Amino acid sequence: MTDRIRDVFAAAGYGEVSTPALEHEQTFARANLPVSASAYRVFDGQGDVLVLRPDMTVPIARMVATRYPHAEGPLRFCYLASAWRGVAAGRGQSREVLQAGVELLGAGGAAGTAEVLTVLCAALDAAGLDSYRIGLGDASLYPSLLEAVGVDADERELILSELARGDFVGVEREIGSLGLPAEQTELLLRLARARGGAEVLEGLEGALHDALAPLREVHALLSAGVAERVIFDLGLVRSLGYYTGAVFQIYDPAFGMPIGRGGRYDDLLATFGHPLPAVGFALNVERLHIALTSEERLGR
Amino acid sequence: MSALRIAVPRGALFGETLEILDRLGIDTAEVRSNDRRLLFSDVGIITMRPTDVPIYVEAGAADLGITGKDVLMEQSEREVYELMDLGYGRCEMVLASEAGEDRSAEALRRLGVVRIATKYPRTATRYFASTGRQAEIVEVKGSVELAPLTGLVEAIVDLTATGTTLRENGLVIREQIAVTTARLIANPVAHKLRAAEIDALTEQIRAM
Lengths: 300, 208
What we know:
Chain A has 13 helices and twelve strands. With 300 residues, chain A is an alpha+beta fold. By secondary structure, chain B is α/β, with parallel strands linked by helices. Chain B has helices at 14-23, 29-33, 53-59, 69-74, 103-110, 121-130, 146-149, 164-168, 188-193, 195-207; strands at 6-9, 39-40, 45-48, 64-68, 81-85, 91-98, 114-118, 135-139, 155-160, 171-180, 182-186. In chain B, strands 2-3-1-4-11-5 form a six-stranded mixed β-sheet, with helices on both faces. A five-stranded mixed β-sheet of chain B has the order 8-7-9-6-10. The two termini of chain B are 26 Å apart. The mean pLDDT of chain B is 93. The interface between A and B is medium-sized, with 22 and 24 residues.
């Protein structure tokens, strides 16, 4: 399966890279990842703190900023590599997770996002997965919506964290307590739950209609085969600190958890001194494998 | 596609949960008449203890589930979406100790640490940590009221609907920690992939 995925990445022009398993702790702190994301820390001989990388996106961003400081892109990199995650006791989770992913750097806007979604679908097809779907949202959408109706920063943070957790009861309580006009409250709650085909991008007016333009642009660039895999999800907010625009998650009905995720991180490279818009995804190969076997068991 | 599979809690929330399902047009006659069977595949119902509902929903073994907020607070690490407050099954999570002078306050004052018995160790731990008090949390599986009466602990953290059990054991409520009600929860993946069906169902419940 990993060979087939690697072939897809190579055919799309993505060159495989490997980076050190150990990175300086500050590398991930700069990327706006919480300290808890780096579950394993070691000290080197000089007393510096190193961490086992919790993902590949940040190391690749660092690598590009330092090794290709003048490149305008687009640069295409892929990896099949381990990341290390903290686990909860007794949950059977792996500390070392094999990820398959790509990073497209220097390709801003809808075209870059559409390219990566296309590669993602090709990789999942090659893996043999049948019924997968991609939930696509925009990490900047809901925060700017809240800001537009005058919600202060602390309250925004609270609502967004509840939305990221899927605590809709909490979202309803917080938004209800803001004292907004009834139609704004209703709209905020409806958009938090809006998910479905391209029709969820329509039917809104004025500034809201414009706010959805980036997603409509992505949709317009997708081939029919990719577009039919996409579920637009306006309540999908960033799960990782560095996502800026489009964010996506990969689902399969045969498996109860997302099997991968991705998104745009247009500001991350700038923190390493080389501003470049970028987008990428990572598939959890272990979960992909479980989803595949579940699909087979459920009898396709 | 098959019907949505719903994890239904047996116990205190069972009756009102079945009433909601009835009004949604789901046939619960068989569920009501057979209290030994657990799986009712033809109507998409699985019955279980309320504390087991989150794990079934998280794993996707059920698309939806109904359980108490107390269970969700205790199992806050479960990745499930909390869709609706269903309003029924109202209880309070409280700190209670023997009537008379509050021995838990005395313990904190004189020893700086209080012993607490509970069936909700994580909720209790979080509550004491968030209020800046040091507590030894003693997890018991049942009859929590017994623990302060025998001197095992100074106070308990427990769920109470009417307060009758507490009163009968000579305990009084010292602090309210949370108000809990029945919640509708969903598997995150099902929430995306079966959006239309799940939204139709929540709309129907809202309209009740």
